[in-house]
């Protein structure tokens, strides 16, 4: 019983990180109708920037700020420099360019920093707190929980409660009509990419201290889980990303705890297959048929 | 008097065949002009070229004498050139209220001013007030067209370009829309260029009618004269 509670709690913390990353995929999908396969590579590059800043200043918080800025800047640069020039009549060219970008970025990071895992120190204790004899979340897990929930709340407010959010949603849903109403749609698309890049960088940064350490492939598994979540929840749905992220996090935690780490990826794929069989549009999808 | 809207030598072509050929058209301030002609005459292309959605091969678009040709679609909109495109112009993923707020963004700075402006639109189009939290895709065709028109008017445009607002609507709804359009034009001095297949309703509220055929102006006369000219009606308007 104690073990179950512990696994559920760690699953929740891990799941919220997955949810954040899935949310970043939803944001870019809504802005550009593109599954950004390069999200993990740009996020990892941003975490390298955070690593350098933390190393130079000794402050985790300066590193966090650097990750957000680098993630946003890199994603905006990818959109302006690359994606804007890709034909957008079908989603395939954009996806292929994104996959190419993964190879270039990961190779560049590998050449620059080598294959070894660089340990990143968490700003809070990572040993679980024991409540009533049951080991639960660590202070770092609690920190992740609070940050993730705060970011989700902030994004919900931005998209639903501000005029900038209204323009972001309108531009994504109906670019031509939005332009006719005076909305600067190209700027909104860049902004969507930047926002998505910052959120993905944050998720990767929160994840790395709980893993082996930082290298070019640190966020790969996170991407696979988050991609599954985004497809589960429907690429259009922030709620779906949140619920699906927590579900996948708990599932991975339970399967890893009871059946072993090797079975976890299989469990995620089984879940994905099941949902695609029952609801091909995703659990929270509003549209009947997805275009990509 | 400087025309509110002028297109000068506008030439637009798909794959070498001109859809509009050296087209010249002026609309005076406060004037309602019905743009008529068969399918494929170039009505939609003219409106899209004016708003900037379709880049012309040659020619200029002027708003109150100022050349807009080099401006983007969104900058033309902010200068006061509004277009309600044919059919699906409501953002279906947003609610009625959000659609209206989107239209009010530029002309009504500040949350309170926007809310007041949107409230006035609900007074003008009462059916919309009951549906303010409905999503665009839940609306009927008439409600959508009302929303699109109300949203365009919220930006307090100088010139309004309307493409087939009566398409697929019941005659009663068409009459209501045309009535609002006529009243607004009279009260605010709004200039309207109205592309329509529904010739009778368009001419009933227009000051002047312009008939396009194969991308060129073939007739340009006061609305009453056009409605009463059997040869012209027969040749170009099909009734």
From TrEMBL, chain A:
Lineage: Bacteria, Bacillati, Actinomycetota, Actinomycetes, Micrococcales
GO cellular component terms, semicolon-separated: plasma membrane
Transmembrane domains' residue ranges: 6-27, 34-53, 59-78, 90-113, 142-159, 188-208, 266-286
Source organism (scientific name): Krasilnikoviella flava
One GO term (biological process): amino acid transport
Name the record gives this protein: Branched-chain amino acid transport system permease protein
Broad class of where this protein is predominantly found: membrane
Membrane topology term: Multi-pass membrane protein
PANTHER family (UniProt xref): ABC TRANSPORTER PERMEASE PROTEIN, BRANCHED-CHAIN AMINO ACID TRANSPORT SYSTEM PERMEASE PROTEIN LIVH
Family to which the UniProt record says this protein belongs: Belongs to the binding-protein-dependent transport system permease family. LivHM subfamily.
Gene Ontology terms for molecular function: transmembrane transporter activity
Annotated compartments: Cell membrane
Keyword terms: Amino-acid transport, Cell membrane, Membrane, Transmembrane, Transmembrane helix, Transport
UniProtKB/TrEMBL annotation, chain B:
Single GO biological process annotation from the record: L-amino acid transport
Pfam families according to UniProt: ABC_tran
Keyword rRNA processing among record annotations: no
InterPro entries: AAA+_ATPase, ABC_transporter-like_ATP-bd, ABC_transporter-like_CS, BCAA_Transport_ATP-bd_LivF, P-loop_NTPase
Residues of the ABC transporter domain: 5-239
Key words, A-Z: Amino-acid transport, ATP-binding, Nucleotide-binding, Transport
Family annotation (PROSITE patterns): ABC_TRANSPORTER_1 (PS00211), ABC_TRANSPORTER_2 (PS50893)
MF terms (GO), sorted A to Z: ATP binding; ATP hydrolysis activity; branched-chain amino acid transmembrane transporter activity
Domain of life per record: Bacteria
Protein family membership: Belongs to the ABC transporter superfamily.
Full protein name: Branched-chain amino acid transport system ATP-binding protein
